[in-house]
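[Meeting: bench + compute handoff]

Bench side (C.D.) handed over the final construct sequence. Compute side (W.E.) agreed to return the predicted structure before the next meeting so the bench team could plan truncations. Sequence as handed over:
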Amino acid sequence: MLTDYRALGILLTQFGAALLLTAALVSTLLKLKNWQQGEANPEQLMRERQAFLVALLAEFGIWIGFLSVLSFIFFINHSLVDFVRGAMCAAGVLGTNAYGDWVLWSKIAFFLAAIPFSILQNADTQFVHNPFTPVKFWWLLPLVLFIWIDFWLSLLFFNQIEPYVLTACCSAAFVKISNLDAVLEAGSFTSTVMLIWLFLALAISIDAALKRSKPVFYALMACFYAACSVYVWKYFFTRYFYGVEGHYCLHDSFQEAHGSIGYILFIALAYGLIDALGGLVLHFYEAPLFPNTSIFYKNKAFWAWTCTWLLPFLYWLWG
């Protein structure tokens, strides 16, 4: 599988991003050793200029890393489905060897680790009158760790894909039931999660529009809502995405046959999490680092959060 040009492209992109971030981390650690916060001597000004260029390099590496993540998701949901025997969606592709699920989790870890640095870098870029923030560079440590883990797991995953080995995939029984029966047949745990999800959906959409809650509470609510959303999408709404009863697979939602709704839902969910976790990061660093900006993070995630619950409900109503 390593001879496939698409797999090679993804691996080379990841490797390039890992090298850029590693170079940025090493260069930064050398500069932070002699950092003099608040000083205006020529040596410190030179360090700040160099650190600014290193931050741009790291930001470029993060964007390349995101590009490799999106390429991987597209590759396993579209191209590899026809390559791996027995695979009907990305679930079968990832299940072809022991590294599939770990690769997916490593990419999620890389995405979450990139949020603090990206938010603080954005703050530095927009508010140049504030003190430079060398503390953001410490967030490169977990970021570099996760991207190298991601690269190594992706390499093992692609290397051990055997196209002639039959893999197991999710199966579906083509039985249609009514919307009311679907609600009644849902288990008690699923019904409870759905009620919590409905409450959080309305609460977080309103909060994103008004921005009145504390950043810590907003971030906790966003994380809990994201977990409930993935569960509810998988174990209740997937039957309406596909029109198939008993088909609990979110990977199929990325395919064109089902409107590629998975891309819309997960991109909206990712944007909402960036809004919430970014606000949390600035909440902890705002007082010492951004004294002239009482309310910095003003990205409105109302439409993103609304999309995560409105689209599934439209499928349910029309299903």
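W.E. noted at the follow-up: DSSP finds ten helices and no strands in the chain. C.D. will use this when planning the next construct.
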